Amino acid sequence: MRIGPIGFRIGSDWRSPIAQLETLYRDYPKPTDSIPDFTVRLFARRPWRRLIRPSVEIGGDYMLPEAAPLPLRQGLLAAEMAMNLQMALGARRYLLLHASAVERDGRALLMTGISGAGKSTLATLLAAKGWRFMGDEFALLDPATGLVHAFPRLISLKNEAIATAEAAWPDARMGPLMPATPKGDIRHMVPDAGAIAAMDVPARPVLLVFPRYGFEAETRPVSPAEAFVRMTQASTNYVALGEAGFHALTGLIAEVPSVAIDYPDGASAIEQVEALWAAL
Amino acid sequence: MGRTVTDACMLSRALADPASVVGLDADGWTALLAMARAEQLIGTLAIRLDGLPMPGAVKMILADARASAEQGRRVALWEAEMARRALAAVDCPVVLLKGTAFVAAGLSAGQGRSIGDLDILVPRASLDTVEAALLAAGWEWVKPDPYDDVYYRRWMHELPPLIHRERDRMIDVHHTILPLTARVTPDAPALIAGSVALENGLRTLSPNGMIVHAAAHLFADGDLAGGLRNLWDIRCLVDEFGTDGLDADARRHGLHEQVARSLRLVGALFGAGNARGVDRLYVRRLTARDGWGKPTRPVTRLAFYIRSHWLRMPPAMLARHLWTKFHKG
Amino acid sequence: MHDAVYRAPPIDGLLIAPLDEFTAVYHRASGITHLLTEPAPQILAVLGEGGLSLDALLDRLAEDYELSDGTREALAARLDELVEAGLVEAA
Fold first, then answer.
1. Which residues of B touch C89 (CB under 8 A)?
2. pLDDT of B310
3. CB-based contact B84:B107 (threshold 8 Å)
4. What's the predicted TM-score (pTM) here?
5. Are residues A39 and B30, on separate chains, in Cβ contact within 8 Å?
6. What are the structural domain ranges in chain A?
7. Could you tell me which CATH number the domain at A95-278 has?
8. Which chain A residues have a beta carbon less than 8 Å from that of C26?
9. Is the predicted pLDDT of residue A238 greater than 60, yes or no?
10. Chain A residue with minimal CA distance to C31?
11. In which domain, by residue range, is B152 found?
């Protein structure tokens, strides 16, 4: 399937993850020219492990030898992780930012932070309030234009975020609930039809937010140097892109205000975001 | 399990005869790209196919591959430069090896090549001084296991691996090109004596030296994983420099058989020649890759893996080594 | 080494993006991005390819930039850091 500008093909030693992917990604287009950018493989280390305590190893064009396998019932998660791995190690056309993104009026809001900071959840909540969802994991920055391109994969919701998202999107199509994965309970949500339809429309980034969940509401500016460093840490291919990466990221930091938001709950975060947006 | 119909002959054909890709359909291109990536040859493929008509998606993927190779080249040359600065005060020749040597000397074998760690060759007598200089300039040991360390220093052809603490890049310091336990002992001082100086003072092996090294590395040191890339290196070197005096040089290092086999395999894979006898097994091993980039032909691969260890160590030692490794898990 | 000459990359060898009190510097030969703070960017600007000795550098910095805590020892320490980072070569 194609997600934003990136096409994937998935091969698997088992049928079930493929069946799940086919269902959840059914409204997504095919790769450009039917030639994918990346190959993902889900495989059994030994032939008998296909049937006995089936254990899914993650691989493809790019592999990490230390990656731990997952049980077959978490095969969908393995596929998503494998796609992440290909992107993280192989993406070259765009600067990969570890951030969620939503768009309004052709302008994009980027939210970045460590796991658990809430960027996936916030993007989902903002999308329920009318923003266009662009992605929950990666935002693609085009070094040539400075525009952000959407990468609207299945949204990966963890633990309490699952209930929050289900409440905001009662009609959304969901993947299976996978309890007790290495990262807690996980459930995937298919982005809304509008997000999928608009996936090829880029937007100009105008605000960079560093959210922090579970604190009293507070907003404060982030210095350019700090934002720059945090963004290089959040980008898996900054170094690989060389000069283009440097120009893209320093350009972003120079043109876009960086703000830290502490928030106790989703509603408060949305309020703070809307206020910042209005003040731009 | 079905029989694999596709193998990496598709890739070797594409490299040898670029025009042959023009008829590929979407699935064919997809398979070719996956194989090229798996064999670390996608940068090379991009260079070879440059300018040929191809689908837009392929053009972009290959452009990405070229950009990656270019970035890799920059990083590799910088590591060489930092090694040069660190070793400037050490009075011994420092000879670059493998991919870094190819790009430093601007050889065709370096075009589009993916480069891993920095490999250098120094005289055995200078090892301690070189080690000390590197440690003083910010390299440190990749924490070795005490057993592995002893094994390394006594038997291997290189220092235990070093990694630079700031740049996080590894350097392998060799004093000869094959392990001391191998059945063949090349003439390291002769290799160094025949080396060629670059503008910045670093050196590369002579063209024949590079071919001999590539052949040694391919057959006597490894289990042939990544062999296609090695053979492509040899093909490029022969293309650029010819084979004058190669036979005599190969004999001096006890590697005549390996060099001869390399040349035959280059002919079989990238030329018009056909493989005969044992060579066909090698071709099978070298092209054991399917259209998903997956390694195939497990029995052939295992045979070569065992063989490579057998070549590197006397049997009793091998048993002890594998036993210890097995026990460590 | 009192008579060491310190050299920096040529003008087009560095891409410079001032951020705030930090400056992001991309070193083209290495592909490494450095985050530098005063007086490092100024040192690089003054040294250039021609190269200067420690004392000559100290004088030029005082002249061109009025750098406050310009002790010789501090400057030597900054230069060592830049040498380790690969931005400056000591010959």
1. 85
2. 63
3. no
4. 0.89
5. yes
6. 2-90, 95-278
7. 3.40.50
8. 243, 246
9. yes
10. A242
11. 9-328
